[in-house]
Amino acid sequence: MKTPFHKVALIGKYKSPEIADSLHKLASFLSARGLDIVVDALTAEHLPNLAYPAATLEEISGHADLAIVLGGDGTLLNIARTLAPCGVPLVGVNQGRLGFLTDISLDTMQQTLADILEGDYVTDPRWLLQTRVLRDGNEVFRALALNEMVVHRSNISSMIEFEVRINGEYLYTQRADGLIVSTPTGSTAYALSAGGAIVQPGLEVIELVPVCPHTLSNRPIVVRGDSVIEVLMHRTHDVRVRFDSHTWFDLNLHDTLEVTRYDKPVQLLHPKGHSYFRTLREKLLWNQSL
């Protein structure tokens, strides 16, 4: 079968020279198959004797047919937010810990990627959240998140206070350490640690999970994916909003966060036979006897 991919971008974990050997081997393997290789410019800084051209993520997003990410889930999250708007599909090779998203192992990397390059893969669209920060009615910041948007206190011991509205309807006012607004992808990340439900990817829902709420009756809630979620800040001393643990913005009193589903999903590619439920069993150790 003729490969559907011709120009492949290689992206490694930021400032991690230990990936050099794996990335060099992967680049040689792909080049031997007649593919054009380009390496992320920040990754290339830590690769001695690189024989392939380097490009920024912005340049990659406009030209690559496929991006292969070597690292952990955190690396793929950061790359996905940049490449999703341009529709570049992603494959994750796991050099991290859990690997919910980067599900290809280094041991089987070449054979698995050979199959994917021949078109033997499954496509897994994952949608993102878009958040606008409004101050006095004007947008002052905007960001995407594949896992979650989190409002949290920064360096203070007191709680923050915020109001939540869904499609303009008042839901609650809450005092807590923070609030997680999560996609189904993010339901196995911070939201899970805070007591949220695991949500199967593909479901068009958004999960709201309070972090250590002051009232025990406050519980996570799942709303429709096409909802407009507004978070109004009532107490904001040293409070910020963070996106996938990468991008952040400091909030002021009376700022409003408007959270909606982003209209362009990121396309993850998995080996044929990939199973989300098998991944859950393996990563969360559900298959181990007590």
Task: Give short descriptive properties of this protein.
290 residues, 6-stranded antiparallel sheet, 19% helix, globular
What does this molecule look like?
The chain is α+β, with helices and mostly antiparallel strands and 290 residues long. It folds into two domains: 140 residues, Rossmann fold, CATH 3.40.50.10330; 133 residues, Tumour Suppressor Smad4 (Sandwich). 19% of the residues lie in helices and 38% in strands. The protein is built from seven helices and 19 strands. The strands form four sheets. It has a six-stranded antiparallel β-sheet, with no helix packed on it. It has a six-stranded antiparallel β-sheet with strand order 14-13-12-9-16-17, with no helix packed on it. Helix 4 links the parallel strand 4 and strand 5. The longest helix is centred in the N-terminal third of the chain and has 13 residues. It is globular and about 60 Å long. The protein starts with 6 loop residues before the first strand and ends in a 7-residue tail after the last helix. The model has no long low-confidence stretch (mean pLDDT 92).
Short synopsis of the structure:
This protein is an alpha+beta fold and 290 residues long.
Q: How are the SSEs ordered, and which strands pair?
A:
Blueprint: E1 7-12, H1 20-32, E2 36-40, H2 41-44, E3 54-55, H3 57-63, E4 66-71, H4 73-83, E5 90-94, H5 109-117, E6 121-126, E7 129-135, E8 138-145, E9 148-153, E10 160-166, E11 169-176, E12 178-182, H6 190-193, E13 205-211, E14 221-224, E15 229-235, E16 239-243, E17 247-250, E18 256-261, E19 266-271, H7 276-283
Parallel strand pairs: 1-2, 1-4, 2-3, 4-5
Antiparallel strand pairs: 6-19, 7-8, 7-18, 9-12, 9-16, 10-11, 10-15, 12-13, 13-14, 15-18, 16-17
